[in-house]
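Re-run with default settings, no changes from the original entry. Doing this only to confirm the output is reproducible before filing.
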Amino acid sequence: MTVIPPRNSPNTQSTSNALGRFVSPVALLALMWLVQTLDAILPGSFTGFGLRSWDVTGLGGIVLGPLLHANWGHLIANSVPFLVLGCLVAVEGARRFWAVTAIVAIVGGLGTWLVNAPGTLTVGASVLVFGYFGYVVMRVFAPGRVSHRILYAVIALIVISLYGGSMLAGVFGAAEGVSWQGHLFGALGGGVAALAGRRRRPDRDVTP
């Protein structure tokens, strides 16, 4: 006799696809923890590869800076909001998550590089955290179906109630040694990603 295993039900497949969308932010956070672990056990420090303002050779920090943290406390403080907000972005798919991440890193990094004092070294995933926050809030105003925009509005209100105060404090009341520039331009990058990533659908041709 031949035994044929049962096929996955549509519900099982949809659940698997839904969970698979969260792999990207989880993997990126895991990479940050791996980098911090290696930084702790290997000689020297990785933070020198961060974003160094007004130094052309430091522009690589646009990519590397968000993966680096000054210490474990810095990483731990960023981890929970990164995961929560990153997963909200990843709900729309892995491609959208990585596109938003790239736009936030570029806009946030270049803005920080230009506005910070020359030679200032900036590291940390907070630029992405603020970028994801900006994206979740601003996508309410992006073109799309009314039902989707209502859902986004509800999510945005919840996110604002949870993180709005700390986000404002991170820009306008940042403590010494904290880059409000990275926070501000990261959030602006998230807004840019929300508005640029969605195009209005062309009107359908109407035939008589």
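Residues 140 and 154 are 9 Å apart (CA to CA). The two ends are 61 Å apart (CA to CA).
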